[in-house]
Write a structure and sequence with these properties.
Layout: H1 3-20, H2 25-30, E1 35-42, H3 49-61, E2 67-74, H4 81-85, E3 96-101, H5 103-106, H6 108-111, E4 123-138, H7 149-158, E5 164-167, H8 173-185, E6 190-193, H9 197-205, E7 211-215, H10 220-224, E8 229-233, E9 259-267, H11 272-286, H12 289-297, E10 301-302, H13 307-328
Parallel strand pairs: 1-2, 1-3, 5-6
Antiparallel strand pairs: 3-9, 4-7, 4-8, 4-9, 4-10
Length: about 325
């Protein structure tokens, strides 16, 4: 399907969705017109993946039928919790939208005893934003002869003092992937938490740590330069961002299939018509070629959804991670 045809289909879909609300595209503006300003809130600082995604989407919202102006508000801290918590009591008119990785909603409720928000009542699903897989890489601190996960685990057994790996944060999906790989191989891998993927990859390249588990896009530049080596990726199928790298499942670890997603959420209690209108605007923005291409640079696959699909995905993700976290035995206090 050509890009022009995609735009036609998208416009037709948006019109159909508005019609379902009893609105034409023109009447949608007539019923109050575009919002003056929309804030997209992210729990991470400027320059990172989450922030970049928000800014690309905001650029495509500005001046359209949804809002005259769109800006990104960074609320970093507590691993993304502060941004989610800020939705409590926020306006429910569509002027405030949260963009968050799934972990804050699907994993944090299982590891924090006194989480300051409820993942199902304090936010309202609007649209999925993108998906991505995780990679497991080694650097110069591991011999070149180690080329896959099985060989890495065997090397760790022979060198238990060097059986280390880093991740972007304690309690993150990459952290748990390392734990589960170690359990599958019958060895405990020592986890070293970092404040984000970038410093972990820097230490990996420098030989300061043996391995790192992180989103695939965080590794591709250094891997393509030959400075680090992919041992495996976490998706159900190989990722187009590292097509020659086998999945964990291909290497015999059938249960280690993990992807994560980012999503857009309105404050809890936002009326359905407001959610639907925001959904149409966000889905249209996510289908723009500049957004798709911009996300691909970071190893992200743009992917929108209906509010109902995102709500179902959140529930499925939450239910899946509960038993995993319990098996690992990790809490934020551990």
């Amino acid at each position: 399907m050509s890009f022009n045809r995609r735009r036609f289909v998208r416009a037709s879909s948006a019109g159909a969705a508005l019609a379902a609300l009893g609105l034409s595209a023109g009447r949608a503006g007539a019923q109050g017109g575009p919002l003056d300003t929309v804030k997209i809130v992210t729990g991470f600082p400027p320059g990172g993946t989450s922030d970049t995604l928000c800014r690309r989407v905001a650029e495509n919202l500005r001046g359209g039928t949804y809002t005259k102006s769109a800006l990104v508000e960074n609320k970093p801290g507590a691993g993304g919790q502060i941004a989610v918590q800020s939705m409590k009591g926020a306006p429910t008119d569509g002027s405030v939208i949260l963009q968050t990785p799934a972990s804050m909603l699907m994993i944090y409720p299982h590891i924090y005893k006194n989480l300051a928000y409820n993942a199902f009542t304090d936010v309202t699903a609007v649209s999925q934003a993108c998906t991505f897989d995780f990679g497991f890489c080694v650097g110069p601190a591991v011999p070149d002869s180690v080329k896959n996960i099985l060989e890495f685990l065997a090397w760790c057994k022979a060198n238990p003092d060097k059986a280390n790996y880093g991740s972007p944060a304690a309690g993150s999906v990459p952290h748990f992937i390392g734990v589960l790989l170690g359990q599958a191989g019958g060895i405990e891998l020592k986890h070293v938490p970092y404040r984000g993927s970038a410093p972990a990859v820097q230490d990996l390249v420098a030989g300061q740590i043996q391995a790192v588990s992180a989103p695939v896009g965080e590794f591709t530049q250094q891997a393509n330069a030959g400075k680090i080596r992919f041992l495996g990726v976490s998706g159900a199928a190989r990722t187009r961002f590292a097509p020659n790298v086998p999945t964990f499942a291909e290497q015999g670890y059938k249960d280690l299939v993990f992807s994560e997603w980012f999503g857009f959420f309105a404050p809890g209690g936002t009326p359905a018509p407001v959610v639907q209108r925001a959904n149409i605007a966000l889905r249209t923005a996510l289908e723009q070629k500049d957004v798709i291409d911009g996300l691909a640079v970071m190893g992200l696959e743009a992917k929108s959804s209906t509010p109902q699909e995102l709500a179902m995905l959140l529930k499925e993700s939450y239910d899946r991670w509960g038993p995993i976290v319990k098996k690992i035995g990790f809490t934020a206090d551990s």
